[in-house]
Amino acid sequence: MNWSTMGPQLLTAIGETLYMVSVTMIIAGLVGLFFGVALYVTRPGNLYASRVVNTAINLVVNFVRPIPFIILLAALGPLTDSVIGTRLGQNAAIFTMSIAAVFAVARIVEQNLMSVDPGVVEAARSMGVSRPKIITTVILPEALGPLVLGYTFLVIGVTDMSAMAGAIGAGGLGDFALRLGYQRFNDEVTWAAVAVIIVLVQLVQFVGNSMARKIMRR
Amino acid sequence: MTSTVTDSPLSRPGEDAEVIVRFENATKTFVTGKGKGRREVTAVEDVSLNIRRGEIYGVIGYSGAGKSTLVRMINGLEPATSGKIQVDGHQVDGRTEDQLAPVRRDIGMIFQQFNLFTSRTVAGNVEYPLIRAGWDKAKRKARVEELLQFVGLTERAGNYPEQLSGGQKQRVGIARALAAQPKILLADESTSALDPDTTQEVLGLLRRANREFGITVVLITHEMDVVRSIADRVAVMDSGRVIEEGPTARIFSAPQTETARRFVGTVSHDAPNAEELAHLSQHSRGCLVVVDVRDGVDVGSVLSSAAARGVNFRIVFGGVSVLQKQSFGSLTLDLAGEPQAVEETIAALGELTTVKEVSA
Ligand SMILES: Nc1ncnc2c1ncn2[C@@H]1O[C@H](COP(=O)(O)OP(=O)(O)OP(=O)(O)O)[C@@H](O)[C@H]1O
Ligand SMILES: [Mg+2]
């Protein structure tokens, strides 16, 4: 492998991947948190119990989540075009990745919030705390440890999505490995991309795990 | 930690004390399932009662009798299906969750499973209601210190709930419930997860909160000892209804209903049951009588004059306890001797109190 030409290209690819993954995690992390909380609080017997809202959100989540990302990339083309102005490039990729990730985040947030002891929520209600404050100052802090683990897990999923972004010209490590490695029968290049991804994921996992451990005092 | 408060019954809220919680024909029906699986459970049925400001009010009854539902109706955690509930002059029934908030701020609650915030320290748990109530930082700090001192956990301020024993957790629960200076404290099986010593500790705190801060305490329990040692008045619940209500001493000395009698029987087993009676009759040398004992009933003097007339008496069963400065109980006597003298002794006892002849 020729490092003098490949080296800079690998660095660019790393930068592109980091950019796509982090922007997607921020957008989908926040929007997904909102929908995850909505899924949780509208469950029967919960703070804002509503069969209609709960069923509606569930329906959308269950509908979108099983669609393979590469197909979603193509299927959402027209929507991406009208929102971003193009179907190609990093921003187009981030748009589609965010949509796909929102539903995954929502489900994981909902599941982690279910670990909160309902008795604790009841204690807050008995104090006369308003429902929005119960969500922000009781439910989310009580579930913070599991939430951090959930988000860490999602980073891996989003990294996986970003590898397919090369298909719409967004670059990144996946594109690097396929175009410069696989298609040119240059296995070393492919393996370099694999190694970088492994290191990145391990790093995220390590940071996430130690944060969660600290929060949960274990 | 256990404090023995020796106040006279006279200092307790009396008949004329102001009512702080009023139930009027309150009913709560739960509906579960839908369609063919639809079921209705009436957890509380047509309950009317008054809780007086400053008293400790006990609620007893078997599991599923509706005690928790009744008490949770006070702060609207369970909205009434029908009837009226008034707390400190405010109507509770008919309010939405958001409208209930101001009423709830005057009502503290402690739970069987403690329900402490695991993400906050001991001090953080106690401080939380104060933050929500908008207290400034300096005032919060002083109040938290005061409360931790009250429950004896000053050293544990920085600990997290999982580092505490059950009794300590419940003490944090009490400090947290008292933080925002409520007028009423609801305690649902607050000692059921604790051992006897720790139970006494927690009850001591509830009693002190009542005596020192004048907080009205509503206490659910299935442990009769708890009610007996702390409650001024008691409601006995059965199948959603309050079947008996009154001063604790009255419920214990003269229970009117079978359920109340069975509960009282669990603490003061002073009259023999059928089996015990059969055994006693076998070994009886004369006449078996069960005599009710209460304050002012001088069984002793009757018996000593009986003894002077040759009546030989043995106490074969019984017990006398003191509850809120009043004695009550019963003794089973075996009276042997001249039939005439025995009969006269029974007559003399009958003039003082209730006497039941249980064998010839
Ligand atoms: N949320 C609910 N949904 C349906 N039924 C309920 C609900 N809460 C209570 N019940 C029913 O209402 C009745 C009274 O329950 P409650 O919890 O008030 O009894 P309890 O006297 O507190 O019993 P325990 O001593 O076991 O705590 C029971 O039959 C119970 O199954
Ligand atoms: Mg109960």
TrEMBL record, chain A:
<keyword id="KW-0813">Transport</keyword>
<dbReference type="InterPro" id="IPR051322">
    <property type="entry name" value="AA_ABC_Transporter_Permease"/>
</dbReference>
<comment type="similarity">
    <text>Belongs to the binding-protein-dependent transport system permease family.</text>
</comment>
<dbReference type="GO" id="GO:0005886">
    <property type="term" value="C:plasma membrane"/>
</dbReference>
<dbReference type="InterPro" id="IPR035906">
    <property type="entry name" value="MetI-like_sf"/>
</dbReference>
<feature type="domain" description="ABC transmembrane type-1">
    <location>
        <begin position="14"/>
        <end position="208"/>
    </location>
</feature>
<feature type="transmembrane region" description="Helical">
    <location>
        <begin position="134"/>
        <end position="156"/>
    </location>
</feature>
<keyword id="KW-0812">Transmembrane</keyword>
<feature type="transmembrane region" description="Helical">
    <location>
        <begin position="189"/>
        <end position="208"/>
    </location>
</feature>
<keyword id="KW-1133">Transmembrane helix</keyword>
<keyword id="KW-1003">Cell membrane</keyword>
<feature type="transmembrane region" description="Helical">
    <location>
        <begin position="88"/>
        <end position="109"/>
    </location>
</feature>
<protein>
    <submittedName>
        <fullName>ABC transporter permease</fullName>
    </submittedName>
</protein>
<feature type="transmembrane region" description="Helical">
    <location>
        <begin position="20"/>
        <end position="41"/>
    </location>
</feature>
<feature type="transmembrane region" description="Helical">
    <location>
        <begin position="53"/>
        <end position="76"/>
    </location>
</feature>
<dbReference type="GO" id="GO:0048473">
    <property type="term" value="P:D-methionine transmembrane transport"/>
</dbReference>
<dbReference type="InterPro" id="IPR000515">
    <property type="entry name" value="MetI-like"/>
</dbReference>
<dbReference type="Pfam" id="PF00528">
    <property type="entry name" value="BPD_transp_1"/>
</dbReference>
<keyword id="KW-0472">Membrane</keyword>
